[in-house]
Request: fold
Amino acid sequence: MDELLAPAEALIGIRSTADRPGELHRALGLALDVVGPGFEIRRFESRGKPSVLVTHPDRPGQPRVILNGHLDVVPGTPEQFRARREGDRLYGRGAHDMKVAALVLATVFRTLAEELPYPIALQLVTDEEVGGFDGTGHQVGWGVRGDFVIVGEQSGLRVVTESKGLVRARVIASGQTAHAAYPWLGSNALLTLLAGIQRLMDRYPVPAEEAWTTTVNLARVETSNEADNQVPADAVARLDIRYPPEDRDLTGRSAGEIAAHLRSITGLAVVVDSVGTPHRADPDSPQVVALRAAARAVGGSGELLRKHGSADSRFYFPHGVGAVIFGPSGDGQHGADEYVEISSLQPYFDALSLFLHDLRDQPRAQPSVQPEKSKPT
Reply:
């Protein structure tokens, strides 16, 4: 995997955040350069977010395996977009989440797409960090399917068969403006908002330690008020909610139903901007069993994990497509000291290769839900 370090450092140097569409295209182009020529590239774009599905022209049909990676990152300081190596660690924004893993997936595809007797695909997207609806979600909406999907998010060569769903919502409070010296003449929307948010946090308290439960992150509080001596008449809180499949108040609910649920708790107006379903794959499926065995064969534990963060695997779950998260080792994603362990890249490549070779002897998976041809949302 030494050949990947130079393009990995170059990719980390690209500020591929949601607000930089040109950089998203640059990151995608660099990854496709690693894939190389000779493949069919189906290009997609939704709301300025580009993505591709790469296949081999001599292997038509639905892919038995889709290798899914995202090339976008969360914002960071300028220093975080300058890759640096310290011992076995490659530091930089996106090193662990998940630019380097995406390049490994691209290399696996380049190496094996022609050699394997069945079709595989490489799916590269640029919007996972802002919800995934314009990348994987968009492609699935246009009918992209596979028998099995491996999302290369970080997992330390363990296999993630469950991940939480995601709700992005706004809680809105109204009040009445007044001079700050006479607050009794007005109604402070910020105070009303914070009281409603406190009721929500009482219902979903922050766990003292890791727990497989619903969590609510108060990401931002906003008001149009700009004067210190004025009572604010409006306020909005932005929420990021993660929930496991077991939460029946949220799982399987529409945006409207979830808004009504949150409104009943906060006592305030709620707008749900997006809903992502939880994800679960059958741990006893032949593909999961084979992937775990491949991970163990290269020195990994291959143990099963649950993932608190959402991933693009959730877009395949409603269509009965088995999807797991399986990636290299590292730490610090979204943090100041994000890194990937360089020594985990070769075992990661080897495990994926072994799995794909072993798959030729297995019968094709049948989806538990018949795939539907749907339009993208």
